[in-house]
Amino acid sequence: MDGPRGLKAQEFDSLCTLVNTVFRGDGVGRMEEQYPLLFAPDNYDELFVMVDEGVVVSHVGALTRDISVLGCRMSTMSIGAVATYESHRGHGLATQLMEAAIWKAVAQDAVLMPISGGRGLYTRLGATRIGQYALFSVPRDTLPAGDGAAAGDGPGTGVGDGPGTGDDPGTGETASGETEIRRAEAEDLHEMIRLYAEEPSRYVRSTADLRMAVDAAWICDRDGETVVIREEGRLVTYAAIQKRRPDREDEARRARLAEIAGSRSALVRALPCLYDRYDVDHLEIVTTASDIELASLLRPHGVTAAPQGFSGTVLVLQPERLLKVFEDYIADVLGRDVLTWDVSADSVVFRCGDKDHAVATSDLGALIFGVVPPDENPVETIPPGLLRTALERVFPLQLPWYGFNFV
Fold it and tell me: pTM of the full predicted structure?
Protein backbone atom coordinates (compact mmCIF):
# COMPACT_ATOMS: atom_id res chain seq x y z
CA MET A 1 0.00 0.00 0.00
CA ASP A 2 1.40 3.37 -1.08
CA GLY A 3 0.38 6.44 0.89
CA PRO A 4 -0.81 8.62 2.37
CA ARG A 5 0.43 11.13 -0.21
CA GLY A 6 -0.76 13.53 -2.84
CA LEU A 7 -2.18 12.36 -6.15
CA LYS A 8 0.09 11.81 -9.15
CA ALA A 9 -1.17 13.09 -12.50
CA GLN A 10 -1.24 9.61 -14.02
CA GLU A 11 -3.54 8.44 -11.20
CA PHE A 12 -6.29 10.96 -11.91
CA ASP A 13 -8.50 8.57 -13.89
CA SER A 14 -8.19 5.96 -11.14
CA LEU A 15 -9.24 8.55 -8.55
CA CYS A 16 -12.23 9.57 -10.67
CA THR A 17 -13.32 5.93 -10.92
CA LEU A 18 -13.22 5.68 -7.11
CA VAL A 19 -15.17 8.82 -6.27
CA ASN A 20 -17.75 8.31 -9.00
CA THR A 21 -18.27 4.69 -7.94
CA VAL A 22 -18.85 5.75 -4.33
CA PHE A 23 -20.82 8.97 -4.89
CA ARG A 24 -22.35 8.76 -8.35
CA GLY A 25 -23.76 5.27 -8.54
CA ASP A 26 -27.01 6.84 -9.74
CA GLY A 27 -25.18 8.22 -12.78
CA VAL A 28 -26.06 11.85 -12.00
CA GLY A 29 -23.00 13.60 -13.37
CA ARG A 30 -19.34 13.16 -12.54
CA MET A 31 -17.60 14.43 -9.44
CA GLU A 32 -14.58 15.86 -11.26
CA GLU A 33 -16.88 18.03 -13.38
CA GLN A 34 -19.15 19.09 -10.52
CA TYR A 35 -16.28 20.08 -8.20
CA PRO A 36 -13.66 21.60 -10.49
CA LEU A 37 -11.90 23.54 -7.72
CA LEU A 38 -11.21 20.36 -5.77
CA PHE A 39 -10.15 18.22 -8.70
CA ALA A 40 -8.07 20.88 -10.47
CA PRO A 41 -4.57 19.82 -11.62
CA ASP A 42 -2.97 22.47 -9.43
CA ASN A 43 -4.66 20.86 -6.40
CA TYR A 44 -3.32 17.31 -6.83
CA ASP A 45 -1.00 17.74 -3.84
CA GLU A 46 -4.08 18.11 -1.64
CA LEU A 47 -5.91 15.10 -3.04
CA PHE A 48 -4.65 12.65 -0.43
CA VAL A 49 -4.70 9.04 -1.60
CA MET A 50 -3.85 5.47 -0.72
CA VAL A 51 -2.82 3.43 -3.75
CA ASP A 52 -2.86 -0.37 -3.93
CA GLU A 53 -1.05 -1.92 -6.90
CA GLY A 54 -1.54 1.20 -8.98
CA VAL A 55 -5.22 1.69 -8.07
CA VAL A 56 -6.45 4.57 -5.92
CA VAL A 57 -8.47 2.80 -3.23
CA SER A 58 -9.01 5.56 -0.66
CA HIS A 59 -9.18 9.34 -0.94
CA VAL A 60 -9.56 12.48 1.18
CA GLY A 61 -9.96 15.64 -0.88
CA ALA A 62 -8.77 18.98 0.51
CA LEU A 63 -9.05 22.54 -0.73
CA THR A 64 -7.14 25.36 0.96
CA ARG A 65 -8.63 28.84 0.78
CA ASP A 66 -8.65 31.91 3.01
CA ILE A 67 -11.79 33.24 4.67
CA SER A 68 -12.54 36.74 5.91
CA VAL A 69 -14.73 37.41 8.94
CA LEU A 70 -15.34 41.11 9.60
CA GLY A 71 -12.05 41.82 7.87
CA CYS A 72 -10.12 39.27 9.95
CA ARG A 73 -8.45 36.84 7.55
CA MET A 74 -7.36 33.26 8.12
CA SER A 75 -6.59 30.11 6.14
CA THR A 76 -8.88 27.08 6.01
CA MET A 77 -8.56 23.63 4.52
CA SER A 78 -11.94 22.19 3.48
CA ILE A 79 -12.41 18.42 3.31
CA GLY A 80 -14.73 16.54 0.94
CA ALA A 81 -15.11 13.63 -1.50
CA VAL A 82 -13.86 11.21 1.19
CA ALA A 83 -14.18 7.74 -0.33
CA THR A 84 -12.84 4.20 0.11
CA TYR A 85 -13.69 1.11 -1.89
CA GLU A 86 -15.80 -1.31 0.14
CA SER A 87 -13.12 -3.96 -0.32
CA HIS A 88 -10.59 -1.77 1.52
CA ARG A 89 -12.75 -0.41 4.34
CA GLY A 90 -12.11 -1.22 7.98
CA HIS A 91 -8.32 -0.83 7.76
CA GLY A 92 -8.02 2.78 8.86
CA LEU A 93 -7.04 4.12 5.44
CA ALA A 94 -9.30 7.16 5.61
CA THR A 95 -8.07 7.93 9.12
CA GLN A 96 -4.47 7.92 7.90
CA LEU A 97 -5.44 10.25 5.05
CA MET A 98 -7.29 12.61 7.39
CA GLU A 99 -4.29 12.72 9.71
CA ALA A 100 -2.04 13.53 6.73
CA ALA A 101 -4.42 16.31 5.68
CA ILE A 102 -4.47 17.77 9.20
CA TRP A 103 -0.67 17.69 9.41
CA LYS A 104 -0.34 19.52 6.09
CA ALA A 105 -3.06 22.02 6.99
CA VAL A 106 -1.27 23.01 10.19
CA ALA A 107 2.07 23.16 8.36
CA GLN A 108 0.45 25.64 5.97
CA ASP A 109 -0.93 27.66 8.92
CA ALA A 110 -4.57 26.73 8.28
CA VAL A 111 -6.70 27.58 11.31
CA LEU A 112 -9.99 25.82 10.53
CA MET A 113 -10.96 22.63 8.71
CA PRO A 114 -14.59 22.61 7.44
CA ILE A 115 -15.67 19.06 6.60
CA SER A 116 -18.67 18.10 4.46
CA GLY A 117 -19.73 15.33 6.83
CA GLY A 118 -20.26 14.46 10.47
CA ARG A 119 -19.44 10.77 10.81
CA GLY A 120 -17.22 9.23 13.45
CA LEU A 121 -14.13 9.51 11.24
CA TYR A 122 -14.27 13.27 11.76
CA THR A 123 -15.68 13.59 15.27
CA ARG A 124 -13.02 11.22 16.62
CA LEU A 125 -10.45 13.72 15.39
CA GLY A 126 -12.20 16.56 17.23
CA ALA A 127 -14.52 18.00 14.56
CA THR A 128 -17.80 19.42 15.85
CA ARG A 129 -20.89 21.08 14.41
CA ILE A 130 -20.60 24.85 14.76
CA GLY A 131 -21.88 27.96 13.01
CA GLN A 132 -25.22 29.73 12.76
CA TYR A 133 -27.15 30.17 9.52
CA ALA A 134 -30.68 31.02 8.45
CA LEU A 135 -33.08 29.30 6.04
CA PHE A 136 -35.98 31.37 4.70
CA SER A 137 -38.79 29.52 2.96
CA VAL A 138 -40.84 31.93 0.86
CA PRO A 139 -44.09 30.55 -0.65
CA ARG A 140 -45.30 31.80 -4.01
CA ASP A 141 -47.69 34.75 -3.70
CA THR A 142 -46.23 35.72 -0.32
CA LEU A 143 -45.00 39.00 -1.77
CA PRO A 144 -47.45 41.52 -3.25
CA ALA A 145 -47.30 41.63 -7.04
CA GLY A 146 -45.77 45.10 -6.96
CA ASP A 147 -42.74 43.83 -5.01
CA GLY A 148 -41.51 41.57 -7.78
CA ALA A 149 -39.10 42.48 -10.51
CA ALA A 150 -41.22 40.54 -12.98
CA ALA A 151 -44.66 40.49 -11.39
CA GLY A 152 -47.33 40.06 -14.03
CA ASP A 153 -44.94 39.34 -16.88
CA GLY A 154 -45.88 35.67 -17.00
CA PRO A 155 -43.93 32.41 -16.91
CA GLY A 156 -40.45 32.36 -18.34
CA THR A 157 -39.61 36.02 -17.93
CA GLY A 158 -35.85 36.38 -17.72
CA VAL A 159 -33.43 33.79 -19.09
CA GLY A 160 -34.79 30.58 -20.55
CA ASP A 161 -37.37 29.29 -22.95
CA GLY A 162 -40.05 28.84 -20.30
CA PRO A 163 -40.52 27.75 -16.70
CA GLY A 164 -37.58 25.85 -15.29
CA THR A 165 -35.69 25.37 -18.55
CA GLY A 166 -32.64 27.55 -18.06
CA ASP A 167 -31.58 26.70 -21.63
CA ASP A 168 -31.03 30.25 -22.86
CA PRO A 169 -27.33 31.08 -23.30
CA GLY A 170 -27.80 34.09 -21.08
CA THR A 171 -28.92 37.05 -23.19
CA GLY A 172 -31.83 37.70 -20.82
CA GLU A 173 -34.86 39.94 -21.04
CA THR A 174 -35.96 43.07 -19.25
CA ALA A 175 -38.08 41.80 -16.39
CA SER A 176 -39.69 45.06 -15.31
CA GLY A 177 -38.66 48.56 -16.26
CA GLU A 178 -34.87 48.60 -16.19
CA THR A 179 -34.44 45.35 -14.23
CA GLU A 180 -32.86 42.37 -15.97
CA ILE A 181 -32.63 38.82 -14.64
CA ARG A 182 -30.57 36.28 -16.57
CA ARG A 183 -27.97 33.57 -16.31
CA ALA A 184 -24.51 34.75 -15.29
CA GLU A 185 -21.99 35.15 -18.09
CA ALA A 186 -18.23 35.65 -18.24
CA GLU A 187 -18.72 39.40 -18.56
CA ASP A 188 -20.43 39.45 -15.14
CA LEU A 189 -17.66 37.76 -13.16
CA HIS A 190 -15.65 40.82 -12.13
CA GLU A 191 -18.76 42.57 -10.81
CA MET A 192 -19.84 39.38 -9.03
CA ILE A 193 -16.44 39.14 -7.35
CA ARG A 194 -16.81 42.69 -6.07
CA LEU A 195 -20.32 42.07 -4.74
CA TYR A 196 -19.14 38.97 -2.90
CA ALA A 197 -16.05 40.74 -1.57
CA GLU A 198 -18.35 43.23 0.17
CA GLU A 199 -20.04 40.47 2.19
CA PRO A 200 -18.90 40.75 5.84
CA SER A 201 -18.28 37.00 6.19
CA ARG A 202 -16.95 35.24 3.10
CA TYR A 203 -14.36 33.13 1.37
CA VAL A 204 -11.51 35.00 -0.30
CA ARG A 205 -12.32 34.07 -3.87
CA SER A 206 -10.52 34.69 -7.15
CA THR A 207 -12.21 35.36 -10.47
CA ALA A 208 -10.74 32.07 -11.75
CA ASP A 209 -12.35 30.15 -8.88
CA LEU A 210 -15.69 31.83 -9.50
CA ARG A 211 -15.54 31.14 -13.23
CA MET A 212 -14.97 27.40 -12.68
CA ALA A 213 -17.73 27.16 -10.09
CA VAL A 214 -20.28 29.02 -12.22
CA ASP A 215 -19.42 27.04 -15.34
CA ALA A 216 -19.85 23.74 -13.48
CA ALA A 217 -23.57 24.54 -13.00
CA TRP A 218 -23.49 22.41 -9.85
CA ILE A 219 -24.42 24.26 -6.68
CA CYS A 220 -23.11 22.58 -3.50
CA ASP A 221 -24.67 19.14 -3.96
CA ARG A 222 -27.09 19.42 -6.86
CA ASP A 223 -27.80 20.73 -10.34
CA GLY A 224 -28.20 24.46 -10.54
CA GLU A 225 -27.33 27.73 -12.21
CA THR A 226 -26.23 31.22 -11.27
CA VAL A 227 -28.37 34.22 -12.14
CA VAL A 228 -27.52 37.90 -12.03
CA ILE A 229 -29.89 40.79 -11.40
CA ARG A 230 -29.14 44.12 -13.03
CA GLU A 231 -30.91 47.39 -12.36
CA GLU A 232 -30.34 50.25 -14.79
CA GLY A 233 -27.43 48.33 -16.24
CA ARG A 234 -25.62 47.78 -12.93
CA LEU A 235 -25.20 44.32 -11.45
CA VAL A 236 -26.75 44.59 -7.98
CA THR A 237 -27.28 40.98 -6.94
CA TYR A 238 -26.44 37.43 -7.91
CA ALA A 239 -27.78 34.10 -6.68
CA ALA A 240 -26.55 30.53 -7.08
CA ILE A 241 -29.75 28.52 -7.33
CA GLN A 242 -30.25 24.80 -6.82
CA LYS A 243 -33.01 23.64 -9.16
CA ARG A 244 -36.02 21.66 -8.08
CA ARG A 245 -35.89 17.86 -8.00
CA PRO A 246 -38.99 16.51 -9.76
CA ASP A 247 -38.19 12.94 -8.64
CA ARG A 248 -38.41 13.87 -4.94
CA GLU A 249 -41.83 14.67 -3.55
CA ASP A 250 -40.58 17.12 -0.92
CA GLU A 251 -38.39 19.01 -3.42
CA ALA A 252 -40.44 18.77 -6.60
CA ARG A 253 -41.92 22.25 -6.20
CA ARG A 254 -39.09 24.14 -4.50
CA ALA A 255 -35.74 25.60 -5.48
CA ARG A 256 -33.03 26.92 -3.17
CA LEU A 257 -30.81 29.98 -3.36
CA ALA A 258 -27.60 28.49 -1.95
CA GLU A 259 -25.37 31.57 -2.28
CA ILE A 260 -26.37 35.20 -2.53
CA ALA A 261 -24.44 38.46 -2.66
CA GLY A 262 -25.35 42.08 -3.19
CA SER A 263 -28.60 43.95 -2.65
CA ARG A 264 -31.13 42.00 -0.59
CA SER A 265 -33.96 44.34 -1.56
CA ALA A 266 -33.25 43.73 -5.27
CA LEU A 267 -33.26 40.00 -4.57
CA VAL A 268 -36.65 40.18 -2.85
CA ARG A 269 -38.06 42.18 -5.77
CA ALA A 270 -36.82 39.47 -8.14
CA LEU A 271 -38.41 36.52 -6.31
CA PRO A 272 -41.72 36.50 -8.27
CA CYS A 273 -39.76 36.19 -11.49
CA LEU A 274 -37.71 33.32 -10.06
CA TYR A 275 -40.84 31.32 -9.14
CA ASP A 276 -41.78 31.29 -12.80
CA ARG A 277 -38.24 30.74 -14.03
CA TYR A 278 -37.90 27.52 -12.02
CA ASP A 279 -41.58 26.52 -12.03
CA VAL A 280 -41.79 26.23 -8.25
CA ASP A 281 -44.18 27.11 -5.42
CA HIS A 282 -41.47 27.74 -2.82
CA LEU A 283 -38.11 29.45 -2.91
CA GLU A 284 -35.70 28.75 -0.09
CA ILE A 285 -32.89 31.16 0.70
CA VAL A 286 -29.97 30.00 2.81
CA THR A 287 -27.87 32.80 4.25
CA THR A 288 -25.92 33.74 7.34
CA ALA A 289 -27.58 34.30 10.69
CA SER A 290 -26.05 37.79 10.59
CA ASP A 291 -28.03 38.71 7.45
CA ILE A 292 -30.33 41.12 9.28
CA GLU A 293 -31.20 43.01 6.10
CA LEU A 294 -32.85 40.04 4.40
CA ALA A 295 -34.60 39.12 7.64
CA SER A 296 -36.03 42.64 8.01
CA LEU A 297 -37.23 42.70 4.40
CA LEU A 298 -39.07 39.38 4.68
CA ARG A 299 -40.49 39.80 8.18
CA PRO A 300 -43.35 42.16 7.15
CA HIS A 301 -44.54 39.39 4.79
CA GLY A 302 -44.71 36.85 7.61
CA VAL A 303 -41.51 35.05 6.59
CA THR A 304 -39.02 34.32 9.35
CA ALA A 305 -35.87 32.25 9.36
CA ALA A 306 -35.50 28.68 10.52
CA PRO A 307 -32.15 28.43 12.33
CA GLN A 308 -29.68 26.18 10.53
CA GLY A 309 -26.37 24.72 11.65
CA PHE A 310 -23.42 24.01 9.43
CA SER A 311 -24.27 21.00 7.27
CA GLY A 312 -21.03 19.26 8.17
CA THR A 313 -18.50 19.64 10.96
CA VAL A 314 -15.53 21.90 11.61
CA LEU A 315 -12.19 21.12 13.23
CA VAL A 316 -10.33 23.95 14.97
CA LEU A 317 -6.73 23.21 14.00
CA GLN A 318 -4.96 25.95 15.95
CA PRO A 319 -6.94 27.33 18.91
CA GLU A 320 -4.33 29.92 19.91
CA ARG A 321 -3.93 31.11 16.33
CA LEU A 322 -7.72 31.42 15.95
CA LEU A 323 -7.98 33.71 18.95
CA LYS A 324 -4.98 35.72 17.72
CA VAL A 325 -6.81 36.37 14.43
CA PHE A 326 -9.62 38.12 16.33
CA GLU A 327 -7.44 39.85 18.92
CA ASP A 328 -7.73 43.33 17.40
CA TYR A 329 -11.47 42.95 16.84
CA ILE A 330 -11.95 41.97 20.50
CA ALA A 331 -9.86 44.94 21.61
CA ASP A 332 -11.90 47.29 19.40
CA VAL A 333 -15.15 46.11 21.03
CA LEU A 334 -14.06 45.76 24.64
CA GLY A 335 -10.87 47.77 24.95
CA ARG A 336 -7.28 46.54 25.00
CA ASP A 337 -6.56 43.79 27.58
CA VAL A 338 -10.10 43.76 28.99
CA LEU A 339 -10.49 40.12 27.91
CA THR A 340 -7.38 37.94 28.02
CA TRP A 341 -6.75 34.22 27.68
CA ASP A 342 -4.21 31.43 28.06
CA VAL A 343 -4.31 28.41 25.77
CA SER A 344 -3.18 24.91 26.72
CA ALA A 345 -3.59 21.58 24.98
CA ASP A 346 -6.93 20.89 26.65
CA SER A 347 -8.47 24.25 27.50
CA VAL A 348 -8.60 27.99 27.05
CA VAL A 349 -8.78 30.01 30.26
CA PHE A 350 -10.52 33.36 29.67
CA ARG A 351 -10.05 36.23 32.13
CA CYS A 352 -11.94 39.47 32.64
CA GLY A 353 -11.35 41.53 35.76
CA ASP A 354 -10.89 39.13 38.66
CA LYS A 355 -12.94 36.37 37.02
CA ASP A 356 -11.71 33.46 34.91
CA HIS A 357 -13.28 30.42 33.33
CA ALA A 358 -11.83 27.45 31.41
CA VAL A 359 -13.41 26.39 28.11
CA ALA A 360 -12.36 23.07 26.59
CA THR A 361 -10.40 23.59 23.37
CA SER A 362 -12.90 21.22 21.72
CA ASP A 363 -15.62 23.79 22.53
CA LEU A 364 -13.73 26.86 21.31
CA GLY A 365 -15.22 26.76 17.80
CA ALA A 366 -18.74 26.65 19.26
CA LEU A 367 -17.95 29.59 21.55
CA ILE A 368 -16.51 31.76 18.76
CA PHE A 369 -18.90 30.87 15.93
CA GLY A 370 -22.00 29.81 17.84
CA VAL A 371 -24.24 26.77 17.61
CA VAL A 372 -27.85 25.99 16.82
CA PRO A 373 -30.01 24.27 19.48
CA PRO A 374 -30.11 21.59 20.71
CA ASP A 375 -26.30 21.79 20.61
CA GLU A 376 -24.96 23.34 23.81
CA ASN A 377 -23.55 26.85 23.70
CA PRO A 378 -20.36 26.92 25.83
CA VAL A 379 -20.98 30.50 26.95
CA GLU A 380 -24.06 29.29 28.84
CA THR A 381 -21.83 27.24 31.13
CA ILE A 382 -20.14 30.43 32.38
CA PRO A 383 -21.69 32.01 35.49
CA PRO A 384 -23.43 35.36 34.88
CA GLY A 385 -21.13 38.28 35.41
CA LEU A 386 -18.46 40.45 33.83
CA LEU A 387 -16.61 37.64 32.04
CA ARG A 388 -19.72 36.13 30.49
CA THR A 389 -20.96 39.57 29.45
CA ALA A 390 -17.63 40.30 27.74
CA LEU A 391 -17.70 37.03 25.81
CA GLU A 392 -21.30 37.62 24.74
CA ARG A 393 -20.39 41.08 23.46
CA VAL A 394 -17.74 39.75 21.05
CA PHE A 395 -19.11 36.28 20.18
CA PRO A 396 -20.54 34.56 18.27
CA LEU A 397 -18.99 35.63 15.00
CA GLN A 398 -20.33 34.62 11.60
CA LEU A 399 -18.63 31.59 10.07
CA PRO A 400 -18.87 31.97 6.27
CA TRP A 401 -21.39 29.91 4.36
CA TYR A 402 -19.43 27.95 1.76
CA GLY A 403 -21.72 28.25 -1.28
CA PHE A 404 -19.49 27.85 -4.32
CA ASN A 405 -16.65 26.69 -2.05
CA PHE A 406 -18.47 23.51 -1.06
CA VAL A 407 -16.40 20.36 -1.63
Answer: 0.91
